[in-house]
Specification:
Strand content of chain A: 5-15%
Oligomer: homodimer
Distance between the termini of chain A: 31 Å
Helix content of chain A: 55-70%
Largest sheet of chain A: 3 strands, antiparallel
Number of helices of chain A: 6
Shape of chain A: elongated
Chain lengths: 147, 147
DNA sequence: TATTGTTATACTCTATAACTATA
DNA sequence: TATAGTTATAGAGTATAACAATA
């Protein structure tokens, strides 16, 4: 196989895998009654976070975080609270219900994710090495808007 | 690292990689003056194809193929023609201009894709093996709508 | 003056439903 | 009756611009 062909094949395989991971994520979100974007925000809320930080983490505009927060708040999964240090800032945090939903979401993500399922332990380690080399050591930034 | 942690890390790395691949694909599309969805359709049109087949390939509804085809036709990149064997079918094909655009698009995709750039030949082969095992031998189905 | 968050608005992506023409 | 394609419409995702409160 020529080098270019091989690169094309790798890109194609990754896109295919991506497609299936996204399907899995959408299924996981639907299992918990959320849209993918809502589920991404929920997934990120392991600990409380200012809305601004959420926008940076999800690589999207602050106004969209307002939209998502409104919806998650209406569902009783998150709540906004004032930041004592800076009265402009609003902290987003999970409610008890939100924590339960997040736990279920994560288990569904793992359940639906096709990613490492068919690899044994040493293959997983090998894959992780390769991915780290492709990404650089600081590559993983978590879920992002629109993926 | 625990097995679950490792799986989580792999999923995270893949998501990060996909995020950057999507950015690269969007850049490539923009370089050619297309939206990502239009670029995906163009990419698939290596040879003429009924609109129905395009919808199947891109995993989207037939009506969306009509929308995309309208736009690509307005740009002078594709044309519809009757299928002699079945008068319900319309064949989509690239115009000369469309072929030029597609060639440019593909070179931009390679240029912007972060995927295999930092790996040497044997690492690429290794990666390809792992991806094939994850996907099964028939995994690669090409680009898809919305990724 | 710069920053956080909100509101209103608008654009893109994409699907569903109803339809026409053909098989 | 089933299939290919079109049209109209609507919902989800997301950004931009204008704004209020605070720093």
């Amino acid at each position: 196989m020529a080098v270019d062909e091989q690169a094309e094949e790798i890109i194609g395989r990754l896109l295919d895998l991506f497609h299936r991971m996204r399907d899995g994520f959408e299924k996981a979100a639907a299992d918990v009654g959320l849209t993918p974007a809502e589920a991404q925000a929920l997934h990120r809320l392991d600990e409380p976070s200012p809305m601004r930080a959420m926008a940076d983490a999800l690589h999207c505009d602050a106004s969209y975080i307002t939209v998502l927060s409104d919806r998650l708040e209406a569902l009783g999964l998150v709540e906004r609270s004032a930041d004592p240090g800076d009265r402009r800032v609003r902290q987003l945090a999970l409610t008890r219900e939100g924590r339960r939903a997040r736990t279920r979401l994560i288990s569904r993500i793992h359940q639906h994710s096709p990613a490492p399922g068919s690899l044994d332990a040493s293959q997983r380690a090998e894959l992780l090495d390769l991915l780290e080399q492709m990404a650089g050591p600081d590559g993983y930034r978590g879920f992002t808007c629109g993926s």
